[in-house]
Write a structure and sequence with these properties.
- By secondary structure, this protein is mostly helical.
- Helix content is about 55%, strand content about 5%.
- The protein contains 20 helices and 5 strands.
- The protein has a 3-stranded antiparallel beta sheet with strand order 1-2-3, with no helix packed on it. A two-stranded antiparallel sheet has the order 4-5.
Length: about 625
Amino acid sequence: MSRAQAESVIKNIIREIAQQCAGKGHAVSETLVAFMVKAVVLDPRNLFNVDRTLTKQDVQKLIELCVDRLLDQTSPTLDTIKMQVYFDMNYTSRREFLEEHQKVLQARLLPICREITDSRAKTREDLESLYRKIVSYVILRSGLGSATDITTVREATAALQSVFPQTELATFMSLLKRDKEQQLSELTLIITGIQLFNKDSGKGGEGIEALPAILNETLPATSREIEGELEGTQRLAWQYTALLESLSDCAVRPDLLKQALYNVRQHEAFLKLILADVILCAKQVEILQTELTARMRVLKATVHSKTAVPTSQVFPHFTMLAKLWAGLQDELLLLSMLSNMVTSLRPFLSAQSNLLQAGQLEQLLEEVTIKTDLERVAESAEEQVDPAEMKSCEWFLPETTANFDMLPLQYRGACGHTLIKENGLLLPGNPNIGVLKHKEKYYSFSSRQAAYEFASQADEYIELVAERAKKSPELIQLLELHQQFASVTPYSQMQSGERLLVKPITKSDSSTQTDTHILESNIVKSYEWNEWELRRKAIKLANLRSKVTRSMQTNLSHMRRHNSTQTFLPRDAACQTKRDGQSNVPKPQVYLAGLRGGGTTTTHMIKVDLTRPVDE
């Protein structure tokens, strides 16, 4: 069966389950049905095999099991899954919420903005209508009062006329559409700042809400409400945990008590997340209010009862006032969303609250010691693993690890060893005992003995936790096991075509190519190893130093362009002036004659020419 056919089959199954539930008076979302289908197929007790095609009997069995689970209103598991689905589909991060709010606001203002930018008003009546539309746009965009309130409209019109009189409409209409939109945004910021300044000066602004006062009152009330509900949820979790630890003859089945424990633990996790956002919101509001007060003080000092002030001095202050006020408006909307989330989570606690009758839980716990999470951590504070005892494992201790509190603990900080050994009991781990790093993941434990046993067989325990989550599908979200269940994604990440139980891909074709030269080549073409060649180049450069570069400029080229002339190296040339020749001149020699006697008895000097003639 191809993937498209499998998706079609699953969609039909989901549609059939939703119709059967609706026929019995219970409307369920397709997202909830899709997750329930996955949970039923994953549960090994139902004997479904994802490797083969489902038969008609399998499909009918799957539909019946899903419908039975979805209609079981006494099941804390169903409430927990519904809570997880609702939270994941409705909760967004701070950045995503503000971005979505801006998109909604722009979409709401798009019609009137289009009417303004596309207007071709020519008559006086058309121009007045266009000006009124700009006033309405400014009021709606700023959120300062109602566009139907006469006082608010008059104040906004007066502020607009002070910076953008009606005579400027002709210039405005000649702009491009993009420039018109930009000018509208700038006008909105300036006029909003003027109205806020007038309100602070006591010159109008009756229709503007006192946002700082509202936030200063709402934030503490919301924080107290969430903290009170969080305390009640934690108390229930501690009571259920104590009851499960001392389990004796009880009127309630242990599996239902564990489901109730998972339910309140999930509610606790969501409340902590919301409370953290509220605290962050309070810090942001404090920063915005401080900057707003300081900016208003600077603006008053700049104006100081002057009749005329340069726009370059006051407009930036008005713009900043508007931006700070918009930040306060965003924080109020975010706070309202978080408060509504807390209220919407309460109905998902009904099954576990009806599990025991009023006062029955207190009776069962009369002789049982109820320990809080902090008390459990304090009990095991003296215990700490010794890395020398298990050198094959990597341990992180608070004394030797920087940013120890920031380690991303698996199972949301719960002890995986206790979850297996105590048959599903959920106990918080104590990181101070020692955090085990196994396959780039971090695990905390409730005791030192639990840490040693888990570390000795880590892979087996991790697999057992996954098997436990298959039987209790709410643990997948509660313990953040999405990576181990590749076919079960968080609900908020599901796409329209991903509501199918897909077996994770464990093999794939891949190829690798190794570059011949990892480093880039760097060949210097001018490099020479020959010393004589280097000397020749040096002589050549020295010869260049004796040359002169000359340039000249005429009146015609003056201030127009630069002319230059470059002298080049002398051209190789040679000439021969030597000529071979010879000559022979007399070389007379003078000798002393008569030394040996002979015909004369006296000596005398005689000159003799011994040079031979050239002809010889």
